[in-house]
């Protein structure tokens, strides 16, 4: 599938989801991020071959921040709206009266085909349903694990040669999304470890803790 899409089309969607090198802050310009924490711009500084296209289609050669991934998952869940991240929703006085309310700011809105979003969402729901850590919930969850390889130069330094990074991205509930979740655990190995943390977040947010 990645080979059929081609690198140009894949990169087009990377930009649509706010995940290119130039968009690494995901609209949150008040924070500083490492210059390396962004996606690969395949058009600069390398000889491109067909194998590279296949690799980027399943995540190889790409670098994304957790904030970018959170926005990506939220856009999948809400149909293509890219909101500006913010940390404070409202400011209240000691009586509880709202002094200032921060309304959501839309940075971009993509018109993705509903049938395409449906396929991706269903695939994420089926993936999440197979996890032992996401069973026994009162609602379905959409999510996907990931095991990200890190800097290959670490092989030259045995102290840096560790397990892959563990990712889990998703949203809940599947039918009526309220929360987008991203779990990133350095050198944690299998993506299933991130799923355990995701379950804790879901339990806490929805008041499902025992």
What does this structure look like?
The chain has a domain of 98 residues: 3-Layer(aba) Sandwich (Beta-lactamase). The chain has six helices and seven strands, in the order H-H-H-H-E-E-E-E-H-E-E-E-H. Strand 6 and strand 7 form a beta hairpin. It is globular.
Keywords:
210 residues; Beta-lactamase; 3-stranded antiparallel beta sheet; 7 strands; 17% strand; globular
Topology:
Blueprint: H1 2-5, H2 7-16, H3 50-57, H4 66-78, E1 81-83, E2 90-92, E3 98-101, E4 106-109, H5 114-129, E5 142-148, E6 165-172, E7 179-185, H6 192-205
Antiparallel strand pairs: 1-4, 2-3, 5-6, 6-7
Order of helices and strands: HHHHEEEEHEEEH
Helicity level, as a percent range?
25-40%
Main sheet specs: 3 strands, antiparallel
Distance from first to last alpha carbon: 43 Å
CATH architecture of one domain: 3-Layer(aba) Sandwich
What is the CATH homology-level superfamily of one domain?
DD-peptidase/beta-lactamase superfamily
Count of β-strands: 7
CATH class of one domain: Alpha Beta
CATH topology of one domain, what is it called? Beta-lactamase
For the largest sheet, list the strands in their spatial order.
5-6-7
Average pLDDT works out at 82
Radius of gyration: 19 Å
Provide the low-confidence segments as ranges.
34-38
């Amino acid at each position: 599938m990645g080979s059929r899409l081609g690198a140009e089309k894949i990169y087009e969607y990377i930009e649509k989801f706010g995940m290119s090198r130039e968009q690494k802050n995901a609209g949150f310009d008040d924070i500083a991020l490492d210059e390396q924490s962004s996606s690969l711009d395949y058009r600069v500084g390398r000889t491109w071959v067909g194998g590279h296209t296949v690799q980027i289609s399943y995540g190889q050669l790409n670098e994304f921040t957790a904030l970018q991934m959170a926005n990506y998952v939220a856009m999948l869940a809400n149909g293509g709206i890219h909101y500006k991240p913010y940390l404070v929703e409202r400011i209240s006085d000691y009586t509880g009266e709202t002094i200032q309310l921060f309304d959501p700011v839309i940075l971009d809105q993509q018109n993705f085909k509903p049938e395409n979003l449906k396929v991706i969402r269903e695939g994420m729901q089926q993936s999440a349903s197979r996890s032992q850590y996401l069973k026994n919930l009162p609602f379905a969850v959409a999510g996907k694990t990931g095991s990200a390889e890190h800097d290959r130069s670490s092989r030259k330094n045995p102290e840096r040669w560790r397990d892959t990074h563990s990712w889990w991205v998703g949203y809940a509930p599947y039918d009526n999304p309220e929360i987008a979740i991203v779990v990133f655990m350095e050198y944690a190995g299998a993506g299933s470890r991130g799923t355990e943390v995701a379950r804790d977040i879901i339990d806490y947010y929805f008041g499902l803790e025992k």
